[in-house]
Sequence to fold (1168 residues):
Amino acid sequence: QVPGKTWKDCDGIMLKSKTFVKKTRAGGVLKIVREHYLRDDIWCGSEVCKECKDEAPVLQEDACIESNLCSYPHYLIPDTNVVLHQIDILEDPLIRNVIILQTVLQEIRHRSAPAYKRIKDAIHEKEKHFYMFTNEHHRETFIEREPGESANDRNDRAIRVAAKWYADHLAKKTNGGSLKVVLLTDDRANKEKAEQYGLIVYRCEEYIKSLIGNPELVDRLALQPDDQNEITGSKLLFPEHLPLSRIQSGIKNGVLLQGTFHANRDNYLEGTVFINREGEDINEVLLQGLQNLNRAVHQDVVAVELFPKERWVAPSSVVLQDDSPNDEDAEEDETENKLNPKSYISEAVILKPTGRVVGIIKRNWRPYCGMLSQSMIKEATRHLFTPADRRIPRIRIETRQAANLAGQRIMVAIDGWPKNSRYPNGHFVKNLGTAGDKETETEVLLLEHDVPHLPFSPAVLSFLPKMPWSITEEDLKVRADLRHLGVCSVDPPGCTDIDDALHCRELENGNLEVGVHIADVSHFIRPGNALDQEAASRGTTVYLCGKRIDMVPELLSSNLCSLRSNVERLAFSCIWEMNHNAEIIKTHFTKSVINSKASLTYAEAQMRIDDTTMNDDITKSLRGLNRLAKILKGRRTEKGALTLSSPEVRFHMDSETHDPIDLQTKELKETNSMVEEFMLLANISVAQKIYDEFSECALLRKHPSPPPSNYDILIKAAKSRDLNIHIDSAKALADSLNNATVENFPYFNTLLRILATRCMMQAVYFCSGMDSDFHHYGLASPIYTHFITHQEVRCYAQRASVAFHTQLFFKNKGIINEEGFILFVRKNAIIILIPKFGIKGTVFFDNKDKPSPHLIFDSEGPTLKVEEHMFRMFDKVKVTISLDASNIQHQRIRMALIEPVIPGVSVPVPESEPEAKKPKLDC
Amino acid sequence: MAGLELLSDQGYRLDGRKASELRKVQARMSVFAQADGSAYLEQGNTKALAVVYGPHETRGSRSKSLHDRAVINCQYSMATFSTAERKRRPHGDRKSSEMSLHLKQTFEAAVLTELYPRSQIDIYVKILQADGGNYSACVNAATLALVDAGIPMRDYVCACTAGFVEDTPLADLCHAEESGGGTALALALLPRSGNIALLQMDARLHQDHLDALIEAAMTACKGVSKVLDGVVRQHLEEVSVLTRD
Fold:
């Protein structure tokens, strides 16, 4: 190779020009002219050849493999389809001395990225003696496409020409010796032409079967119908959607059902359509399999057709994630049996109405956050995008900046989903930043949960009161002046938006006066203006770990509508007169002006109550409130209110970096429940009041009692410990939960309560005129509304934020070994709760990489027998927790079993880092 | 659809060249009789026409002329049919102004301008077909046109591009390689002295690779200079045969 060598002296023979037309994305037609140089210095790569000046020949001289058909040493030349379909065979160590032609390699590159990767790996492996021959640039093997010849035919001819060249070349070098080349093709026409051309040619199957002493290779032959030698790219994967007119008539005459599609988070081949029509006896339709899901994306409004009853199935409890090889063109046969192996189906399972999507009524696509999974071909411009939300399918996008986008959180919008495409097509919207970065991840959370988090617009801000603001004479005229009362507020530490305050004092008649005061936001936000609309669209203030997204501008939330101490604030007050048994004698509501005397944290308030030396007004007031709250709570519990628990996690943040240092589960103080109790009381009183005043249109909240079948899992779980749970009434349930304790297992009760939460129905808002049953099951109250929500209104974004910070925590901590309890048992996994950290994790038993252990699942227990060990709910296990960062897209906390020891399943105890054992406790 | 594989594992590029090989360079001098000097040059599929007028008295305002050397005036343009998509290219757009400026700087470094004070030399170059390396084709064509016009220069100015793909420097990029991502560097060299007349690189490149890339571009430029020298000598031979008759 001569540096700077020029082609001056070659005089045109070696230069060909390739011309072809190409359609641009805009629809125009381009004529592309490319140079194509032909060379003399491309070597055949064989040890035999002395003429070719190859320094390191790849192909061996004695290329012997025992075969009935070819008794002589030979090199193999497979054609494109053979490589594409029989790659398993070619990868076998037995198959050596293969010539891969450039034509073949290029075709494979276009057709299948995984096959391309595999064949390239084979070429790189020295032991395999695979040689890539650059036939397209060889002077004697290059051919031009003839008029009327298709590109495929031209390539087939190029393969034949190259094979012929090899045959002649080797014959010359060995003086007509024994070394031959064998062309492998499954294409009948190609085979005939090659035979006419004087080549030795076999079908792949024929050749492999002829190999002596290697019967196992035959098993690896990919089955292929003889005539189907060409995969057409336009294979239809999905049935066509019906036109809207037919959907409408179908829905009208009841053949089709309309509903919202919800993808299953754990199984990408399954989804449910919730039918949102009154008077329909079926309100959920199960969909299974890609074909039946028919391109519906989570949250789309779709039309479904019900299957006849005999085709109904039960939802599968297998956890399936779409992680097939990253290849946009591979059309794998994801068959139904992957979903629901017949062996699993027992008589007991309840079949659900099953159907298929026939049309999309309304797409509900939005831009999705996630990450790019780069294509295996480095230069590829089409890549798959994996959304952060697992319910959204992967999206194929076209980008040239894939290398830059790797490791970044990006946003992608779906453009469409053609019926011949495995994945929807989309386009890149914007880059959010590096994955794992705190800012980026927070942004992702907010976007994914559709939380408006942009700064307030000037139009919104224009409706804020002008500062400095003070209470005017007019305000005082229409409001009760309660500034003299010993009002105080109790909130979590660091709270700046104090929206409620309390007071309690003794009246002259010996009764107690108790007041709950809530900031009068309606004074500042008038109905219908931009500020009101913005607040309505935001809906709630979102609390993330270390960050808050306000519903109203900060001036209101943290200042004018925050009932801070020692400032005058406008409030709406609910004032009761009670006797010492906490029985309400009189209730009245008023707009008021208050002046809070102290804003306390739960801990401070608790300290004041407990400290007997303190006897100021505030402390006395708190003691009074606390005493009443205990009575109220007792009464509520008596009526059957449930105490359910779900683990809540708190972080100790490093003040400099805001990285979580330690996390602990939230502990509840007496004062927490004190505040809660009065909020509930206020809500109940307000509910009663508005119902009395506006009996037809009061906005109330109810919590329906769950159907008995919801409790099955709870009852089974309790039974596994010989305990009975009664579900006849809320009271019975509450009592049996209270009594359900197991010796030496203090956490059992908490676990049971967590489980009970799962059995509950969703509480709903409703209008009093539309319903007659107002009962709130969880609170055991005949009527309820949300006058005050305190800060217990939780948002999913916060949950996710906690999850992210938990990950961050484990990232810093390394590997931790911890005890946990089995919360649920699934067919192929157990879900484990770690009480210390309040986190849940899944331990899978079937692993793609290694043979899965013997699993027996019994839905009665439910129990799962793994090899010899039986897992039951609430079993204590030991796991090792680490952050699985191997896939940065889905960084997650990984748990692996340490105890009980099951060979091949559990892992040895890893060395846990010393710092993990003694976390710093600085708050 | 998969993108293009710019460099195969066997070391061949899209068009069959190896990493350090140039495209085929062909050139003719004195293609126009009216001009003082002219040349036509093909570098692969990139085709350029260069015409030189001068040195002559400064046209237009006198103030532009320099008392101690000649002014070099360059104008670069592209034919409407030079690219795959036919496109009208008005004079003086940003890209061609920039290219004109680069050419001017290149030749100010190479032409012995001090021999012609208060005069002007015009160099007009047009790209007839663009397939990557427009700047280098223009420089090489203009060098031949200057030689044809008999304007004294320090040396041939030879230009070539080099790109960086898969940790390998590629010489003389074609259009597909230029647009296929990666870094491209254009270099104009006075080969005998090894002086660099112009070096331009827009994209990002790790500093560690810069030396290798410049080295590759310089080697390529030297290759070009051999071709240009051959063209000039052959032209002289032809001309002397003609004049002898």
About this structure: The first helix of chain A runs from residue 80 to 85. Residues 233 and 329 of chain A are 8 Å apart (CA to CA). The radius of gyration of chain A is 36 Å. The first strand of chain A starts at residue 15 and ends at 23.
